[in-house]
Structure formats: structure tokens, C-alpha cells
Amino acid sequence: MLFFEKDKPVIPPVQPNVGLDMVLKHMIQYVEKTARRGSIKLFRTQSPRHFEGGDWDQGGSCQRLQPLLPEQVEELFSVQNNGTNVEARLVNQHLYKALKGSDFQILDITHMSEFRADAHPSTAGGKKHNDCMHWCLPGITDTWNDLFVTLLNNVKVRT
């Protein structure tokens, strides 16, 4: 993977995790330098995928009908098991490290959403398709919104 710094390629090429740290560092510095004073800076973590048996284009599916138990979440998503959504957890580790000491607020939806493998529309509409990246069923996205509003209220109180 090739990364650029000051319009020039970083040579020799760096590992993706090193490049991600560089990108996050520069992004945070840029936003903090250019954002209006007193503005709220927020980073929301990514929503997890729940494909099992392959990725979306390789026969994987999201057929769970119940929320996952804690041990199922760890089995499917843990870094040690190289689970389904391991990249989200790895990126979150880099994100937390990069945002430490910054003015950014973090809305972490990843872990709580890992439990809700049942909350995707998937084949519920009668169509044969895999839709693990959309959250169209009530509940989980409502909770994200509640957390977002709470975060905003807490930030407002502190300023």
C-alpha cells in the first residue's frame, strides 16, 4: 500500500497499520487546526459486519434471528480469532490511540452493534440477498441516535 506525505510517496512503502496511524494523525491535526473554535469534533466508529461462511460476495450470509451472546461476539469478532469483523476492532484500536489527548469525542457504536446480528434486513423481505451493512430494523440505529444526542448534551454541558 502506498501512502503520501506532503504530496510525495512515502518510500520505502510502509505497512498498512503504520500508514493508518499516519493518516489519522494528519487528519486529527488538520481538523483541530482548521475547525472553528468551540466546535464539536466527533468521530463515530464503524458498524460491524455479521457475515458468516464468507464475505458478502463469497456466499456469506447474515441469517441470525437472535442477538448474539457475549461468547458468540468474541468468537466472531475477536482479533485473536481473526474473526469476521476483526478489521473494525483493529481500526478502532488505532483510532483510540490517535485520538488520545485530542479534542475529538468518540461515539463508539462498534462493540454494542456486534451483538445485533439479528438487526439486518437480510432476506427478511423475501429476496435472496445478503445485506449485513444496512441497519433498517428498529432498535440499533435508534440507540446510536440516543447515544449521539447524549454525547452532544454532555459536550454542551462541559463547554
From TrEMBL:
Superkingdom of the organism of origin: Eukaryota
Residue span, Trichome birefringence-like C-terminal domain: 5-150
UniProt-recorded Gene Ontology molecular function terms: O-acetyltransferase activity
Family: Belongs to the PC-esterase family. TBL subfamily.
Protein's recorded name: Trichome birefringence-like C-terminal domain-containing protein
Species for this entry: Citrus sinensis (Sweet orange)
